[in-house]
Amino acid sequence: MSTLPPGDAQYAIGVDFGTLSGRAVVVRVSDGTELGSAVFDYPHAVMDNTLAATGEKLPPEWALQVPSDYVDVLRNAVPEAVREAGIDPAQVIGIGTDFTACTMVPTTADGTPLNELPGFESRPHAYVKLWKHHAAQGQADRINALAAERKEEWLARYGGLISSEWEFAKGLQLLEEDPELYERMDHWVEAADWIIWQLTGQYTRNACTAGYKGIYQDGQYPSREFLGALNPDFAGFAEEKVEHTIGALGSSAGTLSAEAAAWTGLPEGIAVAVGNVDAHVAAPAAKATTPGQMVAIMGTSTCHVMNSDRLAEVPGMCGVVDGGIVDGLYGYEAGQSGVGDIFAWFVENQVPASDVEAASNAGVSVHEYLTAQAEREPVGGHGLIALDWHSGNRSVLVDHQLSGTVVGLTLSTKAHEVYRALLEATAFGARKIVETFNASGVPVTEFVAAGGLLRNRFLMQTYSDVLRMPISTIGSDQGPALGSAIHAAVAAGAYPDVRAASEAMGSVNRAAYTPDPDRADAYDLLYAEYEQLHDYFGRGSNQVMRRLKELRRAAYSKATVNA
Predict the structure, then answer these.
(1) To bridge 417 with a disulfide, which of 53, 247, 382, 385 should be the other Cys (CB 3.0-4.6 Å)?
(2) Structure letter (DSSP) for residue 157
């Protein structure tokens, strides 16, 4: 006989750990109704310029975080969300979490992050390496070259290229730049799994990050021989630092410990779902659990995930994993490293004071002001084309040495015109991904948008016009957190599997945007120009972007030596 509360009195908590903050949402298990939420901003945010503990300047392409900030989300956002929901915590049957990925925490055997050890707080490599830490590109290049030379079978499962964002490239960088710290590290842990460790007291890897970010395919990691050929001291990396028990998505990783119950105010012993990734966990929240439904989680970056009943090689995909999204189907992933981040960079650094003042006088944000101006103009009216590579290219080129550019600037170009060109560039990048999947025999039949950028209706319409597809939108403002709550409900036994829970608890607005034929025709012409620039700068015709980054690194190194 079940000891769970009756259906309408059951609640699940979903916690979404993003790039700058963590969000907790209280969800009714019977129908997915969201009753309360709370956000906690990470006190240390992202350390990409200086190390907070010492003020030391970090090299280019670094992005670090402090793991205690994640625990502070549990201490603050979870109890606040429960208070806002007005429920009895005793009615909560489970908690699930999701994380940015690949975000890595170096720990001791008991899960203590290395930056918390005395004397290590001044060592940059002791901290969390956030997903957008791209300083391991050199190591990624060597992994890719060696894997291609040796014809490693797993390479095709990642579109032919391993990213600098992932576990092995970042781990190799740690070894080669701070070997003492590497030796002190017992576990190289995805933050998605580290937070579950803090909740349960037990370390369990999740199938999602193991497959997509940890090169775990067909039950094994890259061989000792392969890793040793990269660096003799790296031979045991998979066996000694990475390998651990793997939990299926939607299963229970354990139960809430007494310590974590005290942090959160939740009942000790409730189910804790196996960890997950923010993008992948959002698919069930959008009722996208069948083949062909591509979910784009659009925020600072965009991650594209999709289920399929077939295994295929898709150039530049971030990975294909059996059961990587839901059991019984192959889960595909692609992505764009910069989307909302690009728009934010432009607003923070490139907008004239007159536009900022005009936005303030109108009582709107600068983003809203620029969007309203851009929306009035015809497609192509700005005479511009941009590449959306300000944070490198995740798909389909998988090269974080690439950088953004805008072509067509004149002395009469206005800020809102450049802003629109950047919006369009991200839509063109999404079209390149969709077309690559279609051409590889993994057809995209529905495009479902989720994430914070849904608020910009002009952006969504632009995507529909550029893709020449209807755009469905998730019905929740908190897609990843809702998805985590769905997994928590399954882990607690309220539903037999994620598909059933998705059907009951998920929410989607089908075909919320439809393409305008005239605008779509005009965008075809711009997209043709985008493709030419994409291949010219991205496929080896001109390596100027790589050379410029090399010059930047050399200049930084010289300045450091002379300081």
Answers:
(1) 382
(2) G
Full-model pTM: 0.89
**Number of neighbours of residue 337 by Cβ within 10 angstroms:** 27
Q: Same fold for the domain at 11-277 and the one at 340-433+517-562?
A: yes
CATH numeric code, 11-277? 3.30.420.40
Distance from chain centroid for Cα 255: 26
Instruction: Return the SS3 of 522.
Output: helix
Strand 271-273 relative to strand 92-99: parallel, antiparallel, unpaired? parallel
Q: Could you give the CA distance from residue 204 to residue 245 in angstroms, rounded to a whole number?
A: 6
Nearest to 373 by CA among 322, 427, 326, 418: 418
The bridge status of strand 21-28 relative to strand 34-41 is antiparallel
Is there a contact between 432 and 396 (Cβ–Cβ < 8 Å)? yes
The DSSP letter of residue 217 is: B
Establish whether the linkage from the previous residue to 318 is cis, with ω within 30° of 0: no
Distances (CA, A) of 349 to 22, 341, 499: 26, 12, 44
Helices (H) and strands (E) in the chain, counts: 18, 21
- Compute the distance between CA of residue 242 and CA of residue 250 in angstroms, rounded to an integer: 22
Nearest residue to 516 (alpha-carbon basis) of 471, 562, 479, 485: 471
Report helix, strand or coil for 500: helix
Cα(271)–Cα(261) distance, rounded to whole angstroms?
12
Q: Rounded to an integer, what distance in angstroms lies between the CA atom of residue 72 and that of residue 21?
A: 10
| CB-based contacts of 200, cutoff 8 Å, min separation 6 | 253, 254, 255, 256, 257, 260, 272
Report the CATH number of the 340-433+517-562 domain.
3.30.420.40
Q: Residue 280 corresponds to which tokens in the numbers above?
A: 């992948």
pLDDT digits (tens), the chain, 563 positions = 234 455 568 999 999 999 999 999 999 999 999 999 999 999 999 999 999 999 999 999 999 999 999 999 999 999 999 999 999 999 999 999 999 999 999 999 999 999 999 999 999 999 999 999 999 999 999 999 999 999 999 999 998 999 999 999 999 999 999 999 999 999 999 999 999 999 999 999 999 999 999 999 999 999 999 999 999 999 999 999 999 999 999 999 999 999 999 999 999 999 999 999 999 999 999 999 999 999 999 998 999 999 999 999 999 999 999 999 998 999 999 999 999 999 999 999 999 999 999 999 999 999 999 999 999 999 999 999 999 999 999 999 989 899 999 999 999 999 999 999 999 999 999 999 999 999 999 999 999 999 999 999 999 999 999 999 999 999 999 999 999 999 999 999 999 999 999 999 999 999 999 999 999 999 999 999 999 999 999 999 999 999 999 999 888 777 766 66
Q: Which of 467, 452, 427, 490 is nearest to 289 (CA)?
A: 490
